[in-house]
Amino acid sequence: MAARLDELDRKILVELQRDAGQSLDEIARRVGSSKTPVWNRVKKMREGGVIRQQTVLLDAEALGFEACFFVLIRTSEHEAEWQAAFLQALRDRPEVQEAHRLAGDIDYILKVRVRNARAYDAFYQALISEVKVHNVTALLSMEEIKSTVALPL
C-alpha cells in the first residue's frame, strides 16, 4: 500500500533524492519550511519505510569499473531449492548491482558491473559453477545514456 504523503513530504523527498548529504537547514530553505518540521517528517518517513536508507553514489568508471553487462538468464530449473541457491549466489556477488525475475521468455535479468571482459568471464564462470542455468546471454552496455535512482514524485 502506498504511503500517504502531502506536498511538503514530496518536496522533502525530491530534495533528499537530489542530494541526501545536504543539511536539514538547506532542505528546509528549499522546500519553504523550517528545520524542525522537516526533521520530524524525515523521521516519520524513515519509521514508515518510505525512506529505506541513505547512501552515496559512486562513479563506477572513476573507480575502474568500466564494463557494465546486462545478463539475460533462462533456466529450466524452477524448484524452490534451485531458486534459493541461485538467489544466494546473486546476493554473494558484489558485481551484481540489480537482479530481476521477469515474465516472458527470459527468467532473470542482471545488471553486472565489472572492471573489464575478463572480470565478467570470472563472474560468469563462478556463477555457472554454483547453479545450473539453461542459457545465458550477456549484453555489454556501450554507453550509459541515463541512470537514476530518483523516483518521479
Automatic annotation (TrEMBL):
GO terms for biological process: regulation of DNA-templated transcription; response to amino acid. One of its GO terms (molecular function) is sequence-specific DNA binding. GO terms for cellular component: cytosol. It comes from the Bacteria. Residues 5-66 form the HTH asnC-type domain. Keywords: DNA-binding, Transcription, Transcription regulation. This is Lrp/AsnC family transcriptional regulator. It comes from Aquicoccus porphyridii.
